[in-house]
Amino acid sequence: MHRALNVKRFHAVAIGESACAGAIPDNFITDAIDCRYHRPGPKHTLHTQEDYMQIRKLPLAAVAALATFSALPTLAQQKPVGLPGNYPSKPVRVVIGASAGGGTDILGRLVFKYMGENWNHPFIVENKVSLLGSAMALDEVSKAPGDGYTMNVVSGSTYIGAAVVHKVPKNLLKVLDPIAQFTSQPFMLVATKNLPVNSVPELIALAKKNPGKLNYASSGIGGSAHLASEYLKHEFKVDIQHIPYKGIGPGYIDLLAGRVDISFGTTVSSVPHVLKGNLKLLATTSPKRLASLPDVPALSEFAPGFEYVSFFGVVGPAGMPKPVVAALNKQINEVLGNAEVQKRLESDGSIIERNTPEYFQKTLEGFVTRIEKLVREANLDLSEAGG
């Protein structure tokens, strides 16, 4: 029998437009585009409900500019001591190669909102979206002056999109310097409740006995569920069919209904269904068992070296002054130690990282190397992937 999970800490959070709309009080708001994280307070400009209705009529770019301006600290305030030279002496540009409202955007805005408040200095967040996905943002930032005034919030998907899918003709690990890693994001291997398996060995045995008959759901080609599943297939030498969906939500609907056999998902998307008995949690993709889920084995226990952990962090152009990188890293780590920030980040199962730029560089190198090796050895075609 599948043992009950020992979940030490788990919070579910609402996401999407409904969550944002529900956060708006009857008579005022603070941020027209990210009201989940910005609450009314003395450091923000308040708008009446009538103002909000006018804001909604503005073009998206104007709304973003207004929201950013509203959250900027007062420049007349004194900057904290200990910063190198006169840095920063002008607004710092933070590029995000993803649409507003996505995971990378939300996390980047959260971190740099607190950075701006702590340093009493503006960090201007700019969403850079194109047909090349995050690749254009990475390329643009890599060409910017390495002075600490241009940064790029990135994720595992960012590097997959640029290095593996769009094959940016440059070594991203050399033209971009790591500043700080925000979080790590392991994934959960789950099975539909009616699948006659309760462990990874039983799943692999069933797959080998029935080649090509089991299937897995993903959010689309090149997504984490796709790559983690192909990694599983490659390591255990099994044939499991891929069913790509337009987002993991529809995939989970079929998984819960028993029309799909397995999938990989985040803690927040998987564990609630496991606790209700609707899915079976077989393993995690972290290199070792998670402290929050001590009864759930890591896939590395069955395939040594198995690891698929995504990340969020920030990088900048190569050649940034080391004192500037050190100052940014130190302050970001302080932001990540904020109790409110930790609560929000841990709510989706993320592991908060408060480490050095060198640590983040090893994370980047390990992730890119692992994915490139998987794509090459498993002969994966990611030409139709987003990114």
Helix-strand sequence: HEEHHEHEHEHHEEHEHEHEHEEHHEH
Oligomer: single chain
Specify the overall morphology: elongated
Instruction: Report the CATH architecture of the largest domain.
Output: 3-Layer(aba) Sandwich
CATH topology of the largest domain: D-Maltodextrin-Binding Protein, domain 2
Category by helix and strand content: alpha/beta
Helix content: 25-40%
Measured distance between first and last alpha carbons: 40 Å
The whole-number mean of residue pLDDT values reads 79
What is the CATH C-level name of the largest domain?
Alpha Beta
CATH superfamily of the largest domain: Bordetella uptake gene, domain 1
Our estimate of the beta-strand percent is 15-25%
Radius of gyration: 22 Å
Q: In total, how many domains does the architecture comprise? A: 3
What is the strand and helix layout of this fold?
Layout: H1 17-22, E1 28-29, E2 47-48, H2 49-55, H3 60-71, E3 92-96, H4 103-119, E4 123-127, H5 135-142, E5 150-155, H6 156-165, H7 172-175, E6 176-186, E7 188-192, H8 200-209, E8 215-218, H9 224-236, E9 241-244, H10 248-257, E10 262-265, H11 267-275, E11 279-284, E12 309-317, H12 322-336, H13 339-346, E13 351-352, H14 357-377
Parallel strand pairs: 3-4, 3-5, 8-9, 8-10
Antiparallel strand pairs: 1-2, 5-12, 6-12, 6-13, 7-10, 7-11
Helix pairs in contact: 4-12, 6-14
Concise synopsis of the structure shown:
With 387 residues, the chain is an alpha/beta fold.
Describe this structure in words.
This protein is α/β, with parallel strands linked by helices and 387 residues long. The chain folds into three domains: 1-70, no CATH class; 72-185 and 309-372, 3-Layer(aba) Sandwich (D-Maltodextrin-Binding Protein, domain 2); 188-307, Periplasmic binding protein-like II (D-Maltodextrin-Binding Protein, domain 2, 3-Layer(aba) Sandwich), CATH 3.40.190.10. 39% of the residues lie in helices and 17% in strands. It contains 14 helices and 13 strands. A six-stranded mixed β-sheet has the order 4-3-5-12-6-13, sandwiched between helices. The protein has a five-stranded mixed β-sheet with strand order 9-8-10-7-11. Strand 3, helix 4 (103-119) and strand 4 (123-127) form a beta-alpha-beta unit. Helix 6 crosses helix 14 (357-377). The longest helix is centred in the C-terminal third of the chain and has 21 residues, at 357-377. The protein is elongated.
